[in-house]
Amino acid sequence: MTASTLITHIGSLVTNDPSLPGADPASGPLGLLRDAAVVVEGDRVAWAGPAAGAPATDNAVDVGGRALLPGFVDSHSHLVFAGDRTAEFAARMSGRPYSAGGIRTTVAATRAASDDELSATVGRFVAEALRQGTTTVETKSGYGLTTRDEARALRIAREHTQETTYLGAHIVAPEFADDPAGYVALVTGEMLDACAPHARWVDVFCEQGAFDGDQARAVLQAGQARGLTPRVHANQLTHGPGVQLAVELGAASADHCTHLTDADVDALAGSGGATVATLLPGAEFSTRAVYPDARRLLDAGVTVALSTDCNPGSSFTSSMPFCVAVAVRDMGMTPDEAVHAATYGGARALRRDDVGTITAGARADLQLLDAPSHVHLAYRPGVPLTSAVWRGGKLAYRR
Ligand SMILES: [Zn+2]
Fold this sequence. Notes:
By secondary structure, the protein is α/β, with parallel strands linked by helices. It is 33% helix and 22% strand. Helix 12 (320-330) packs across helix 13 (335-349). The protein binds zinc ion (ZN). Zinc ion binds at residues 76, 78, 233, 309.
């Protein structure tokens, strides 16, 4: 028999399951319960509800009125890299604009790094994210840009997460600067063959200076033919075809969504949640750019996720609490909406039903805040509130 553990005296419990008995109807999709308890059995949540109705268990943990939430689901990061771009950031903060080209610096350093060095880097950032409440991390290739280096990046990423994304089409490899068509042929051919066994998703940076709509379509469809599901870097720096292509091809997510036409918003809404709009405020923060308009998307009925885009060039943060705070302060989201997007929204962007909620049957991926409410994630920006994190029912971090 698996031992059961009761986590009780939860001051406020975010379940993302509004159908749970005792959930406050005013909290909408957040499914908020006060004075709640959760029962963990093995790696799963066995029960969640009002503390007064909790079943008998083998063990009990009293969390003293603190807030318990699903672990954050960070559905967009670029952790397989080497090198340092501190000087580029400092220069940009002195007034130079961001362009896609800085990626080449990281490509050169990543190619030169050893497997062990790259794996240690991924592990370090996954652990850093865990200490801030993140229990599921997606990460991408995209700094290798050769068949060998892209496959290596995905193999290393797989040591740390099942949510791996083939992004050979991050930028055109420097060797193909005069032959972008040749590079697309490589990305959709030999490189894809080497990478597909290590990846769940296929992605493309659809942007001026990276890949146009036709090239992006070719990359995504080739990935689909190999069993990968698309996600798209879309409409980050300019208007473009990325978002509508994502919806058309049934991508799980259109990421960035900073520059949208009404037709783009309609397309995302029309997908009925199949294509999530993943907003990455760390990128706008770190490039001093205009934030995406989350309010416009939410009001149109689009499913929204928040994610870090953690990468050394344009968004070097692993902090989901930071993203929640910025989304509330500058993107028109309420604290409830931002927390929902950082948990349930991220799970939807990865098409995962087992994470992002605290309800019977879900994975016991939980975070305890040193605060009475999830609202404090935005109310107390920059303050390390993560008190404990359980991953798969096991205590993975405790301050
Ligand atoms: Zn990205």
